[in-house]
Amino acid sequence: MNYVAAADLSLLAQGQGSSGLLTFAPLVIIMVIFYVLLILPAQRRQKKTAELLGALKAGDKVVTNGGIYGTIVGIEGEAVQLRIADQVKIKVARSAIAALQPETKES
After folding, report:
1. CA distance linking residue 96 with residue 63, whole number of Å
2. Which of 23, 30, 84, 91 could pair with 70 in a Cys bridge, judged by C-beta atoms 3.0 to 4.6 Å apart?
3. Which CATH number fits domain 57-100: 2.40.10, 2.30.30, 3.100.10, 1.10.1070?
4. Residue 13: pLDDT above 70?
């Protein structure tokens, strides 16, 4: 029969402590990668969108999430009134504005 001395058991326990930290290292690395690749860009995009929606004013040419191009003619709290054609105005939620129309150079 093999008997393990108490001193040997304490040495084994000390050795497992450092390997316990090493087992969590890959998990920590994966969490950091997820944060850098997924969460951080999403937060930046959300902040940029919030700034865009907060800076809307009458006369801005915008595109909605549904693909409607229009010019802002009025802002009413959380709604925006868009002119999409002559004598045609629609009311959309401010959050439905996806982006400002890119400036086009007309020759």
Report:
1. 9
2. 84
3. 2.30.30
4. no
Q: What does the domain layout of the chain look like in residue ranges? A: 1-55, 57-100
Q: Helix, strand, or coil here: 10?
A: helix
Q: What is the pLDDT of residue 83?
A: 96
In this structure, what are the phi and psi dihedrals at residue 84, rounded to the nearest 5 degrees?
Answer: -105, -15
Residue range 15-41, pLDDT digits in tens: 555 677 788 899 999 999 999 999 999
Tokens of 33: 């990668």
End-to-end CA distance of the chain: 96
| Residue in the block written with tokens 């009413």 | 76
Write down the pLDDT at residue 70. 95
Phi, psi of 94 (to 5 degrees): -60, -35
Check whether 66 has a pLDDT greater than 80: yes
Residue pointed to by tokens 């969460």: 39
CA atoms within 13 A on the CB side of 80: 27
Identify the residue whose tokens are 């982006």: 99
